[in-house]
Known about the structure:
Layout: E1 6-8, H1 18-26, E2 31-34, H2 38-47, H3 54-59, H4 65-75, H5 99-117, E3 124-129, H6 136-145, E4 150-154, H7 161-169, E5 174-177, E6 180-181, E7 188-191, H8 193-197, E8 207-212, H9 215-224, E9 231-235, H10 268-273, E10 278-281, H11 287-295, E11 300-303, H12 305-308, H13 317-328, E12 332-337, E13 347-352, H14 359-363, E14 376-379, E15 385-388, H15 394-399, H16 413-420, H17 459-466
Parallel strand pairs: 1-11, 2-3, 3-4, 4-8, 6-14, 8-9, 9-10, 10-11
Antiparallel strand pairs: 5-7, 12-13, 14-15
The structure holds flavin mononucleotide.
Amino acid sequence: MKELEIIQGGMGVAVSNWRLANSVARLGQLGVVSGTALENVLARRLQAGDPDGHMRRALAQFPLAPMAERVIDRYFLEGGKAVDAPFAIVPMFTIDPDPALIELTVVANFVEVFLAREGHTGKVGINYLEKIQMPTLSSLYGALLAGVDYVIVGAGIPREIPGALDRLARGEAAELKLHVEGGGEEVQMRFDPVAFAGEKRALQRPRFLAIVSSSTLAQALLKRATGEIYGFVVELPTAGGHNAPPRGKLQLNDRGEPVYGPRDEVDLAKIAALGKPFWMAGSCGNPGRLREVQEAGAVGVQVGTAFAFCEESGVDGQLKSQVLRGLRDGEVEIFTDPAASPTGFPFKVIEFEGKLPGVDAYAVRPRTCNLGYLRTIYRRDDGSVDYRCAAESVASYVKKGGDVTETEGRKCLCNALLANVGLPQRRPSGYLEQPLLTAGDDLLQVAGFLEADKDTYGAADVVDYLLAKV
Ligand SMILES: Cc1cc2nc3c(=O)[nH]c(=O)nc-3n(C[C@H](O)[C@H](O)[C@H](O)COP(=O)(O)O)c2cc1C
């Protein structure tokens, strides 16, 4: 099969949703859905009344009908919830999750991939973050059940996922070692398809791509991965979302952003010498760059930012228009925030005239952790494990043995990212969770997609532009 030149990057939460991935796959390129927090996305879309019926149409195709019916019974609200009512709380993942949460996770990943694959023969991938470990096996299984073609994993060293894919595709139980701060006895997640589905199914084993920021990491993964790595996405620190931290001691520029230097440059010749297909990411959203990286041996590019604000993306319509208007008026900037993400990785945010949208509302946000995707597992003194997030209430983080300096400047990305896609939680106190938009340095080019008489553009405009002759 001819390699696909363009990967539309996975963008969480639900920015690269099934609709965007479906469009890109129809255009003959790789459409990727974000696999992050899909259980909350599905539960909230159902509580919002599933107005076009897409969720229920996909749920009707889930191979284990009683599970899909239970999800509908639990979350679907005809006509949608009242605007001021909170969304139902989905239990947070732990090392021993509620079976209903596992079921919801498998079903939600199936739904997103099913819809992305519907009605065409193009290729579809799903993106996960290595840092978010506890939902991974059940998520993978749901995506496999829907016939996903590629699994793409970033934000960490996904050593064990390739082997887990081999096992799950054969219908065998898979395990994943979890990272526990404070060490101690090994903790694993396990997913057994036979126990889950009551029968053994053989499924297509998707191609696995690891997102890396250096040739050393790519090489180490090839040596140590538990199963086949098909290829790599090599991501530079100008990319939207999380960025790999700079190597060496962290230095900030006068705007307070991490400074990247020569040690962060990627040696493309070394990547090419690994003999695996690779795609470049990070400000690669233009035809000149596509040709350039291909000359250096890459198959093509992975692009996020240019797709993030197109018609089909999941970003809330009003926010999207606000960004596009701001771009036209030259009011928008990108800030690489070294502190915002509880992961400790730099995270790019969009600023309007030096200010984050909703920053005043954010300042009064009472800190709490109620989605929990970025919680880390830590070992208590008595040997048991517990969970903490650097963006939760400072008192509770410190009580759990966390270092207070770790909490400074942290933002609740879980809630903010769901707000970005029009699914904000309304707390019982009335507080409405605020968005925090991310994009890469390429954002400033996005205005170029807007024709004079239009205030929107489509995924096809991005693909056509990338493939234009230079
Ligand atoms: C809004 C947004 C969200 C993103 N979320 C993720 C994510 O959840 N997982 C991931 O691996 N990469 C994520 N990325 C990175 C993209 O997949 C892609 O690699 C990157 O955007 C490419 O660089 P560019 O932004 O310059 O096009 C995100 C990027 C954007 C713009």
